[in-house]
UniProtKB/TrEMBL annotation:
Coiled coil: none annotated. CDD domains: ASKHA_NBD_HSP70_HSPA12B (cd11736). Keywords: Stress response. It comes from the Eukaryota. The keyword Electron transport does not apply. SUPFAM superfamilies: Actin-like ATPase domain. Transmembrane segments: none annotated. This is Heat shock 70 kDa protein 12B isoform X3. Residues 1-54 are annotated as: Disordered.
Length: 651
């Protein structure tokens, strides 16, 4: 096979079918921006995909950062005792009644844009600022979801602070990661003064499994900017998928460390056993992990493989934006119905610190909500809210509540919003229903039949409302719904274990179909007439989608897809090839509906030494079975490595 990848025809693609050719597309083709001469090559055989054991550099300690939508934290373990996981120090500050082994994902920058503080410190300092002064400071919270929701994420994407000012998202994330890096290294130095700092730490960053490749690359770029690792030592940083990390941890738990929602008796019967989950499983047993976090619900299905306890993914990661922030949004909408959406928008902009106060007050009450709670809940309104409303509207908040059509929220004599339990539970319903619908849709898939357990993990899984709803909906199926006791730290601890043994997830499912655009020899009746290109008397079909890996395809860790490329011109220093992706498995052309350009494969070439006057072949090996798509390349004539990368962020 000879064919031309798109993107300016800067390199030649060598495969295994004589129907592919290096003839360029005509001007105006959607896959070529410029053209250059292409030297014809003799077809060379492309090796079949093969598995290769990944190599990992030595390290002394793994530090995992669970960068969450609402709260974040780090943990670590030493290579000498990998399962002894050390949680980060307790954070200063915090809310009464809330365990704070994590800190809120809140970042405060000075009016000049310099780092000031993160977490509880940032939140409390911002809270104490004079209202007029606070309007100049840049306060960011719950900003992780912006990366998930951005349809055209790039390195220049902007984030909006609470006061409406914007700054590059990459800098915001880098500030946060740098904060955790410095905290973690300081704690490591205190615990182990003899630990050399360079090349001894493997860093792990957690991301939702449903995040696409650009978002994963964005987190890696932020880590480079924060100084966690350098680009030259990229393998020192691992991206861990949150439900996978939870799965890795859950399979090691003892049964007495779990709460079985079907029995509600954590200390009795089989739950009192001290065997681990994986020892009680048999070869081939299957389970679902539902990671219910602040921003997303993330579902993964694993099959346990004995004797080594490795995991095989049975269905591609699924989920959606059904995290705990959905409940916060429902509360904000409720306030809008009572006081007016325009007022709430103005208040957030004019009194940003007081708005943060109000969200903290709601968060505290949200955590006490439960399906069987009888009494009403009081939510404090900041004085700034009450005063601002009277100045804006000319009457007080009590009058607004009386005039409102919302009859399940009243004004209490203590000067608080008084909300019935039914009203609070109603705020949960859209988000909880979305989670249950996603789980039910997953369980209906033929690939997922035979599941025994559902692990409910993540910060939102602490909610009694969510636990009760999931058990009520899924318990009738005979599914055991199980919650680890330290449910909010499950992902963090699992990420540490994953960093110590990244090969534990042996097989993954590709979420999308990936490939390149090429030319095929035109076959009348099989190829559309509009794709016909005649060049030098030969008939070619343009825009053919050459598939590397299909959506839903099982891909083993270390398995390689190999393709060879050749520079189009002597002395060419760079080969750049567009990558395309789609959700369908059977796309034929890169112009088909749903097929889109998603990235570019670049090969940076060293100057040729002139010893090989013939063609120069560059062999690229791509891996789709890891948490990130990876590529390596070698110059076949010299057997030297070629700098290769896949960029998903440049449009």
């Amino acid at each position: 096979m000879l064919a031309v990848p798109d993107m300016g025809l800067q390199g030649l693609y060598i495969g295994s079918s004589p129907e592919r050719s290096p003839v360029p597309s005509p001007p105006g083709s959607p896959r070529t921006q410029e053209s250059c001469g292409i030297a014809p090559l003799t077809p060379s055989q492309s090796p079949k995909p093969e598995a290769r054991a990944p190599q990992h550099a030595p390290f002394s300690v793994v530090v995992a950062i669970d960068f969450g939508t609402t709260s974040s934290g780090y943990a670590f373990s030493f290579a000498s005792d990998p399962e002894a996981i050390h949680m980060m120090r307790k954070w200063e500050g915090g809310d009464p009644g809330v365990a704070h082994q994590k800190t809120p994902t809140c970042l405060l920058l000075t009016p000049e844009g310099a780092f000031h503080s993160f977490g509880y410190t940032a939140r409390d300092y911002y809270h104490d600022l004079d209202p007029e002064e606070a309007r100049d400071w840049l306060y960011f919270e719950k900003f992780k979801m912006k990366i998930h929701s951005a349809t055209d994420l790039t390195l220049k994407t902007q984030l909006e602070a609470v006061n409406g000012k914007k700054m590059p998202a990459l800098e915001v994330f880098a500030h946060a990661l740098r904060f955790f890096k410095e905290h973690a290294l300081q704690e490591l130095r205190e615990q182990c003064p003899s630990l050399p700092e360079k090349d001894t730490v493997r860093w792990v960053l957690t991301v939702p499994a449903i995040w696409k490749q650009p978002a994963k690359q964005f987190m890696r770029e932020a880590a480079y900017l924060a100084g966690l690792v350098s680009r030259e030592d990229a393998e020192q940083l691992l991206i861990a998928l949150e439900p996978e990390a939870a799965s890795v941890y859950c399979r090691k738990l003892r049964l007495h460390q779990l709460l079985d929602l079907s029995s509600r008796a954590p200390g009795s019967g089989r739950l009192g056993e001290r065997r681990s989950i994986d020892s009680s499983f048999r070869q081939g047993d299957r389970y679902v992990v539902a990671d219910c976090g602040g921003g997303t619900v993330d579902l993964t299905v694993h099959q346990l493989e004995q004797p080594h306890g490795t995991l095989k993914e049975l269905y591609k990661a699924s989920g959606g934006p059904y995290g705990a922030v959905g409940v916060d949004l429902a509360f904000e909408q409720l306030l809008g119905r009572i006081f007016g959406e325009d007022f709430i928008t103005t208040f957030k902009r004019q009194r940003p610190a007081a708005w943060v106060d109000l969200t903290i007050a709601f968060e505290a009450r949200k955590r006490t909500a439960g399906p069987h709670r009888a009494g009403a809940l009081n939510i404090s309104l900041p004085f700034s809210f009450i005063d601002f409303y009277r100045k804006q509207r000319g009457h007080n908040v009590e009058t607004a509540l009386r005039r409102s059509s919302v009859n399940f929220v009243k004004w209490s004599s203590q000067g608080m919003l008084r909300m019935s339990c039914e009203a609070m539970n109603e705020l949960f319903q859209p988000t909880v229903s979305g989670i249950i619908q996603h789980i039910e849709a997953l369980l209906a898939r033929p690939e997922v039949q035979g599941v025994k357990l559902l692990f409910l993990v993540g910060g939102f899984a602490e909610s009694a409302v969510l636990q009760h709803a999931v058990q009520a909906a899924l318990g009738a199926r005979g599914l055991r719904v199980v919650v680890p006791h330290d449910v909010g730290l499950t992902i963090l601890k699992g990420a540490v274990l994953f960093g110590q043994a990244p090969g534990v997830v042996r097989v993954r499912r590709s979420p999308l179909t990936y490939g390149v655009g090429v030319l095929n020899r035109f076959v009348a009746g099989r190829h559309p007439p509009e794709k016909l290109l005649v060049r030098d008397g030969r008939r070619w079909c343009t825009d053919v989608f050459e598939r590397f890996v299909a959506a839903e395809q099982s891909v083993a860790l270390g398995e390689e897809v190999r393709r060879s490329y050749c520079p189009a011109r002597p002395g060419q220093r760079r080969v750049l090839i567009n990558l395309y992706c789609c959700a369908a498995e059977d796309a034929r052309f890169i112009t088909d509906p749903g097929v889109r350009k998603c990235g570019a494969l670049s090969l940076e070439l060293e100057p040729s030494d002139g010893a090989s006057p013939g063609r120069r072949e560059i062999r690229a090996a791509m891996q789709f079975g890891d948490t990130e798509i990876k590529v390596t390349a070698v110059d076949v004539s010299t057997n030297r490595s070629v700098r290769a990368a896949i960029d998903f962020l440049s449009h």
